[in-house]
Specification:
- It is a single chain.
- 23% of the residues lie in helices and 43% in strands.
- By secondary structure, the protein is an alpha+beta fold.
- Strands 1-2-4-5-6-3 form a six-stranded antiparallel beta sheet.
- Strand 1 (23-28) and strand 2 (31-37) form a beta hairpin.
- The longest helix is centred in the middle third of the chain and has 17 residues, at 51-67.
- The relative contact order is 0.21.
Length: 138
């Protein structure tokens, strides 16, 4: 499996992640790392990143780790726990690790950290693998 090809596919063909400045940096089966720098448009009225920033990063990381198997997948369930807020200009990292990979259902956990490694939150995402290869691998 060409993980660099999958990584490039995910970075180039994900307009939602692109519009939010989320970049897939590392990928292998059951693992993905995405990065993003907090921008002014990410802030909520409290002047901290909106919760959707963290959720989106976690979902993107976990979905990418799932995509490393070469198949399309959809999210069955997702949850996110907020621990601490980042600030404008902070570089954020979301790392997804596989908890269980089944024939059709797989679960991943994402950990989002700030620039100093502080844990900002965690998310758990469960995916259903479709019987359809990623377009680049059909």
């Amino acid at each position: 499996m060409d993980y660099e090809k999958i990584r490039n596919y995910r970075n180039k063909r994900n307009p939602y992640a692109q519009s939010h400045g989320i970049y897939l940096e590392e990928l292998r089966p059951g693992f993905a790392k995405v990065v993003k720098t907090v921008q002014p448009e990410d802030l909520n009225p409290l002047n901290v990143p909106h919760g959707g920033v963290y959720f989106t990063m976690a979902d993107n990381a976990c979905g990418s780790a799932m995509a490393a198997y070469g198949y399309m997948a959809v999210t069955l369930n997702a949850s996110y726990n907020f621990f601490k807020s980042a600030r404008l200009g902070d570089a954020l990292t979301a790392e997804a690790h596989e908890l269980r990979h089944g024939k059709t259902v797989s679960t991943f956990e994402a950990r989002i950290t700030g620039p100093d490694g502080t844990l900002l939150g965690t998310g758990t995402f469960t995916f259903f693998q479709l019987d359809q290869k990623l377009p680049e691998f059909e």
